[in-house]
Design a protein that fits this description.
alpha/beta; Rossmann fold; five-stranded parallel beta sheet; 6 helices; 5 strands
Amino acid sequence: MFSKIVVPVDPAEPKFSTPSIESAVNFAKQYDSKIWLVCVLQVLPGLVAEYLPPDYEKTATANAKKKLEEMAAAYGLPEGTVRVLVRNGGVYHEVLDAVDEVGADLIIMNSHRPGMSTYLLGSNAAKVVRHATCSVLVIREG
C-alpha cells in the first residue's frame, strides 16, 4: 500500500514525534515500507549567524543526523528500513522537497492542537497537507 514514508521529526522534541514514528513503523512492518526521518534545521538570520562559529551549520547538521539515527535505531527495524535526512530551510518546503526527492507515497506527521495563531497563519502540518502530492496522515498530540 505505502512503500516510502516520510516522517518529519524535530530531534529537540523526540516525545512529540513518537506517535508519528510509531505509526510509520507499523506501516513499515505491515507493508514492508521504507521510512525516511526528516529533520529541517531553520536557516539562521545573518545577524545571528555572524556570532556563531564558521562550522556551525555543518556541526548542527551532523548532530541532528546522529540524533535521528539514534531515534531510528530505538525501533529495532531491519537495517536499511529507516533512513535519515537533514535539510536546511523552511519546514514545509523542505518536507515537500524531501517527499519529491525520495518518491514518497505517504507523509506521517504530528501536529499541535490548533490555536488562534494557527487559524490566522497556518501551521506547517496544514501547509504540508495543502501542498503534498501524496497521502498525509496527521496525528494530533494528546
